[in-house]
Design brief:
Length: 677
């Protein structure tokens, strides 16, 4: 993990409250999917959202009944963030500014360095209590947000008490006193440097850095206008060294990133200070080598592995670039196989009944038609492609009438100006609260991208609604939609829960649907000629694909005692071998594969031996249980024999998941065989 500098080139391509500019390496070399590191660097200015007024054509309607008890006036609802529950949950639930755990309470907050425990199905470090600081408050509100950090304003009946900022990658809670704060500590603090003290609670040393404060026994008084920073170093961290490394409090985190020929780069600048301590996310740091000289402040044990504490204001890393893909390379496939695929695709089209009205299953059905269209075009059957395109255009048409919900209650979208969301009128899986939007809308965008590629004349018709969906999950739109709403730049993956009312933080289950979402976004951007959106989509796609492999399907840091080869739900505070819908092993693996398609080959096919291990871990019912068709298709990446077995099985199989079909399953295996042969 060594520092490297960045030279900027190209065009900025992100977003409200942050700047995501194209960057290129000028020193140090790329680190790949595991190379997160700390470095020095300046903060970035914010940029305008990619999208303009993306939602003005949609009817305004509030479908969600969710309460928002802890949000300051004028602040957009922070759905789908790692800290979303701070605004929505009352009483509050913990959030996880890695590597810490944090609980906001009416009077103040509690901070903890949580301990890791391991079971056969879980690796967890939940909040169990810690150092509580009573700020003398009676209420708190989320007052400032960005994708990585959040500021909470505490008040009492007379006015402001303090502003508290927490951030992923910062092991420090920053408190800006707006009134005199008289804090009662669990013991008389020990001075370790001027303006810095330690207290020990439950075996953990807590460092309090407050240059303007005074102590009196176990009391710490921070005057109005003063600051307090509460750090919880790891066991091998030297409090005096930490005190020397901590400057002014962090006030926010700026994000820069982009793509070049080699990879997708990301940089986080912790703003407001010229020195602080940062911690790279361990889950994507598994491949790094010895830490840089400034990463010597100790090592945290986290559910995602060991994480070094670094004296720096910047984190930066690179992951391999993944190009969006809609079509398989079937150029070497024999004529008989091609003819069989076309005949089956025609049968699959004929067997397609009425499509669902909700945004998840309806979106999957539309994407299935888009995949059939891409397959027909790949194989050169113009007549079949025309028939599929006709059906897809007819099915998409009601969804793409921007004001459709003004006259009907299904197959249309509205704008919720309270939660700042684009919402389908027929909701499912809590989408009205922000749940799973990237999963749902990625399917729509993929379908629209396939249709627009075949019929460019439809771009203007599709554009208003598709651009609204793109803005909802990634692009932003002025004050209406927050850019990067579902994506967490620090962790390199998205969050699925809109309100995140969970004691373990936010979560994401289907890493593969998240990858598919950004592939769909890229296909729509490409077909509609939006180069800025395409750049952002490729950056999101590359990061999410790296996370899918490193955190879900091919983690290298699984501890002894955990009995499986994959993780199926990643949380803020834990990793689970589970799903939300089934305990069957086939479902646990299958949800990390669907919807298999051309882009899946770009990130799932790198380690055949690990594929075979994962399939073996799914047990004897891997191919026959829920989502077993996807597991068998995934198994084809393990060896030529497994691919042949999958081809034979799919030729005889009569039922497939609603997100694909027999022809698409057979095309997948043919593409796998062509790739390896």
């Amino acid at each position: 993990m060594t520092a490297r500098s960045l030279a900027r080139g190209g065009t900025a391509f992100l977003a409200v409250g942050l700047a995501l500019a194209l960057v290129a390496c000028t020193a140090g070399g790329g680190a790949g999917a595991g190379g997160r590191r700390a470095a020095a660097g300046a903060s970035q200015d914010a940029a305008a959202p990619l999208s303009g007024d993306a939602v003005s054509a949609l009817p305004v309607e509030q479908i969600s009944s969710a309460a928002i008890p802890h949000l300051a006036d004028g602040v957009a609802s922070p759905t789908s963030r790692w800290y979303a529950s701070l605004a929505f949950s009352d009483p509050g639930v913990p959030v996880y500014p890695t590597p810490l755990a944090f609980l906001a309470t009416g009077d103040g907050f509690t901070v903890q360095r949580p301990a890791v425990s391991v079971s056969p199905t879980s690796i967890a470090a939940p909040f169990t209590g810690g150092l509580h600081l009573d700020l003398g408050a009676t209420d708190y509100r989320v007052a400032r947000t960005d994708p990585v950090s959040v500021t909470i304003a505490y008040t009492d009946a007379t006015g402001p008490r303090a502003r508290v900022t927490i951030a992923e990658g910062s092991p420090i809670v920053a408190v800006a006193a707006e009134s005199d704060l008289d804090l009662v500590l669990p013991e008389t603090p020990t001075e370790v440097a001027a303006g810095a003290w330690t207290v020990t609670l439950d075996g953990a040393v807590h460092l309090l850095v407050a240059p303007q404060a005074e102590t009196d026994g176990s009391a710490l008084r921070v005057p109005a206008g003063g600051t307090l920073q509460v750090a919880v170093p790891p066991d091998d961290g030297d409090p005096a060294a930490w005190a020397a490394a901590i400057g002014e409090p962090v006030t926010g985190v700026a994000v820069t990133g982009g793509i070049d020929d080699e990879g997708a780069d990301t940089r986080l600048d912790y703003e407001g200070t010229d020195r602080t301590v940062v911690v790279p996310f361990a889950g994507l740091d598994a491949g790094s080598t010895s830490p840089a000289d400034h990463c010597t402040l100790g090592t945290y044990d986290t559910p995602y592995g060991a994480a070094s504490a670094c004296a720096s204001t910047t984190l930066e890393w690179s992951v391999p670039r993944i190009a969006p893909a809609a079509e398989y390379d079937l150029a070497g496939t024999d004529d008989a196989t091609r003819a069989s695929l076309l005949a089956q695709a025609s049968d699959d089209l004929a067997a397609t009944g009425a499509l669902p009205d909700d945004t998840y299953f309806g979106g999957k059905a539309l994407a299935r038609l888009g995949d059939l269209l891409s397959l027909a075009r790949t194989l050169g059957d113009a007549d079949l492609a025309t028939r599929i395109a006709d059906r897809l255009a007819a099915e998409l048409e009601p969804w793409t009438v921007a004001d459709g919900c003004a006259t009907r209650a299904a197959k249309c979208f509205v704008y919720d100006d309270r939660l700042h969301l684009v919402v389908g009128k027929e909701v499912g899986f809590g989408a009205e609260d922000g749940n799973d939007h990237h999963f749902h809308y990625g399917y729509f965008l993929a379908a629209a991208g396939a249709l627009a590629a075949a019929r460019p004349d439809l771009v203007d018709e599709l554009g208003p609604v598709m651009n609204a969906l793109a803005a909802d999950v990634a692009g932003g739109s002025g004050d209406a939609l927050t850019a990067l709403r579902v994506f967490d730049p620090y962790r390199g993956h998205s969050w699925a829960a809109g309100l995140a009312p969970f004691a373990d933080g936010n979560n994401q289950e289907s890493s593969s649907e998240a990858v598919a979402a950004w592939n769909g976004l890229a296909l729509w951007a490409e077909a509609s000629g939006d180069d800025e959106l395409l750049g952002r989509a490729e950056w999101l796609l590359s990061n999410e694909a790296a996370a899918a492999r490193t955190l879900w399907l091919e983690p290298t840091d699984l501890p002894a005692g955990y009995a499986h080869t994959i993780v199926s739900i990643s949380w803020g505070a834990k990793r689970d071998d589970a799903t939300w819908f089934s305990a069957e092993p086939s479902a646990i693996l299958g949800i990390q594969a669907l919807p298999l398609g051309p882009v899946s080959l770009e990130y799932l096919a790198g380690d055949p031996a690990r594929v075979a291990e994962n399939v073996a871990d799914a047990g004897d019912t891997a191919f026959t249980g829920p989502l077993g068709d996807y597991v068998q298709a995934y198994s084809a990446l393990g060896s030529p024999d497994a691919a042949s077995a999958a081809a034979t099985a799919f030729a005889a199989r009569t039922t497939f998941d609603d997100g694909w079909s027999k022809s698409l399953a057979l095309a997948w295996v043919a593409a796998v065989q062509a790739r390896s042969g």
